[in-house]
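does this look right to u?? 2-acetamido-2-deoxy-beta-D-glucopyranose version
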Amino acid sequence: MEERRTKEGRMNLTVYIMALVLICRCAGDASSDLAKLHSDFFTWRMSDRPIVATYRDVHKYDDQLEAFTLDMFDVRKRRADELSARLKNITVADLKKSDMINYRILDDQLSTYIAGYPWRMYQYLTPVNFLDGPQHEASYMAENLPFSTRGDFENYIVRLQKMPEKMSQYMTLMRKAIQLNRTNHLVSMNRLKGQFDKLNVSDPTQSVFYLPFNNTLAKSNVPEGDRHGLRQRGSAAVELAVQAYMNLSHFIQQEYLHHTRPNIGISSLDGGLEFYEACIRWYLSVNMTAQEVHDIGLREVDRIVGNMQKIMTKQNFNGSVSEYFNMLRTDPSFTFKSANDILKEYRHQIHDIIQKTLPTMFVNMPDLPIVVRPMSYDGPVGTYSTGAADGSRPGIFWANVFRPNKTVNFTTMVLTLHEAIPGHHLQLSYSMTANTPNFRRKMEYNNLFRPPFAFPEYLSYIEGWALYAESLGEELGVYRDDYELMGRYSFEILRACRLVVDTGMHAMNWSRDEAIQYLRNYTAESLNNIIIEIDRYITLPGQALAYKIGEIKIWELRRKAEEKLGDKFDIREFHSVVLESGTVPLNVLEDLVNDWLDTYPVTTPRPESPICGGTQVMARHVWVVMVILAAVTASRLY
Ligand SMILES: *[C@@H]1O[C@H](CO)[C@@H](O)[C@H](O)[C@H]1NC(C)=O
Ligand SMILES: *[C@@H]1O[C@H](CO)[C@@H](O)[C@H](O)[C@H]1NC(C)=O
Ligand SMILES: *[C@@H]1O[C@H](CO)[C@@H](O)[C@H](O)[C@H]1NC(C)=O
Ligand SMILES: *[C@@H]1O[C@H](CO)[C@@H](O)[C@H](O)[C@H]1NC(C)=O
Ligand SMILES: *[C@@H]1O[C@H](CO)[C@@H](O)[C@H](O)[C@H]1NC(C)=O
Ligand SMILES: *[C@@H]1O[C@H](CO)[C@@H](O)[C@H](O)[C@H]1NC(C)=O
Ligand SMILES: *[C@@H]1O[C@H](CO)[C@@H](O)[C@H](O)[C@H]1NC(C)=O
Ligand SMILES: *[C@@H]1O[C@H](CO)[C@@H](O)[C@H](O)[C@H]1NC(C)=O
Ligand SMILES: *[C@@H]1O[C@H](CO)[C@@H](O)[C@H](O)[C@H]1NC(C)=O
Ligand SMILES: *[C@@H]1O[C@H](CO)[C@@H](O)[C@H](O)[C@H]1NC(C)=O
Ligand SMILES: *[C@@H]1O[C@H](CO)[C@@H](O)[C@H](O)[C@H]1NC(C)=O
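got this back:
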């Protein structure tokens, strides 16, 4: 037996080596075709999204703005078709193994975009809502575009001068939306007046657009003699941009608001239900119907309420979930004394509690630094922005410390697990140090009105992982008492409720009040937050489903691996398979796990191997998407 097996083994090995030689010979061609293709793709995307290009350190288009015209829909679709045809021409079997996943992801990028084309004339026609739009971009640009050379300032002035054209393009799109009866609901638009009013200044030097010409210019290396002229021309350009913005605001108030759609549900539009299911596919990167998502939501809410009930019973509390959290929220012994106390607590959790436990579940962890800093504006409870892949700039967990005496102490741990480790910081550290080409490493981000006619960015993987990290906290043993466990469940149930109410409103005729009541019944949120949450779901159909569905998919794959491998299952290996390829869509993640299981233990990640990518030089603005999402967002997009 032994003898024969060995011989067969040798035979197979010989065949294998011969095959390898063959593969290697053509792999060169196929792989270099692919490399050329994804480099063409990346170049096209950057030229098409000039501001994204600037944030990604591609500086060829620094004086340009994106075109928002109807004819561009077809131009872009044709370009995507062309690239897709070239991709289909590559023989997959000829690719190097390491290129397979790049192939899959480029294919997913292009085919998802092309599949979104039929839906271009829906939400895309209204590129402004209370969560996203030029009113939020203004300060973001002023604070985040590079301003060190004279050229940077000149380019910025040219971009400001192009704002009238951009706003006029927006108005044309929005008039088309009115004509087609495909407008947003009032709740997506009625906060805009206040947001635009803040930008309405008569003295241009008081405008946020003018910020770069003040301190930034004073500190730059632009020669002293050039500064005055720049300020003067800057001021004129700012004045023009402000007027253009006010024109748009005026148009929204005087024209668009008279035509907002009467029903909150996107399914009330012609083709709306199909549009919604296309959004679900875009956000989740798996095929699911609204009904399937809704049913999963109901089951999850039930399950989590059961978990909460056990603790409440143990604590002799007789009321409902929302009564329980009301009680804790109004008890001052559960809140913080100062901003500094909050920061100290987060740092303690990361460095003294969670960090130590991670080696039991992870290997090959990229050792990138993380720090906790106070958020400069009163935004969400927490956000995360990535640092540099070489560690020269740390990842940052931004904590909202504006209201210590309203910040409860039992949801800080779950937030740390989500934003910092093993959530966004750890996952994105793997992503940044994975050896991936530009089109994956510097993926474009999307404005929230674009999907599903947009290139996907795999929110269900990124947020699914962070929610999975919240649940790992239990296995890591870092929740210190039942209150913190209740805090964890309160975060989880909000994400489960979203599956119910998002599908409820967009596919099942639920009213806004029903949806509000549902969140009041089952979540720990204040009424004010609940209303903003619900209006967010009305505005962005399907977006909020990504978190829970992504987490469920990761758990499903883990259960499958546990069952298949039995005693041999090693949680550290599983996590390596999920994280080491970088950010991927859920369907590719599923294939990665299946491949690993089918060929176990051959493809198992080797714990002793050093981490890859240590020598890679990374651009500064990679993953600025996380910051942007946070910066443009009035509510808590977590
Ligand atoms: C596909 O490959 C064939 C053969 O090399 C070539 O003639 C054809 O132009 C290619 N098509 C595309 C879309 O690149
Ligand atoms: C839009 O709705 C109006 C009023 O209901 C109707 O008269 C018009 O035909 C609709 N337009 C389109 C393009 O469906
Ligand atoms: C720019 O500086 C001027 C003069 O110091 C000041 O009045 C103005 O408020 C500043 N503008 C902004 C946007 O900070
Ligand atoms: C604002 O709108 C008016 C009227 O449509 C137009 O004449 C003017 O050029 C616009 N101004 C800017 C700065 O876009
Ligand atoms: C901007 O402010 C001016 C002066 O207060 C006002 O006349 C104008 O209507 C405002 N513009 C908009 C669009 O609200
Ligand atoms: C998802 O559904 C669409 C439309 O029914 C179908 O064309 C597509 O192949 C499906 N994709 C997957 C991954 O099942
Ligand atoms: C809890 O509820 C049960 C059943 O409704 C009731 O009998 C009991 O008195 C309640 N206990 C407290 C402490 O309120
Ligand atoms: C939060 O406050 C409560 C009440 O003072 C206390 O019992 C609990 O230990 C605190 N939790 C943490 C994690 O500090
Ligand atoms: C909370 O802090 C604010 C601002 O410091 C203060 O005005 C308010 O009275 C405090 N509330 C409570 C309940 O201590
Ligand atoms: C939603 O309401 C519309 C109009 O009242 C009706 O035609 C449709 O069948 C309803 N859909 C569901 C799922 O109840
Ligand atoms: C909220 O809870 C109440 C009382 O348990 C129940 O009657 C009602 O149906 C619930 N509402 C929703 C929208 O689930």
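The chain has 26 helices and three strands. idk if thats expected tbh
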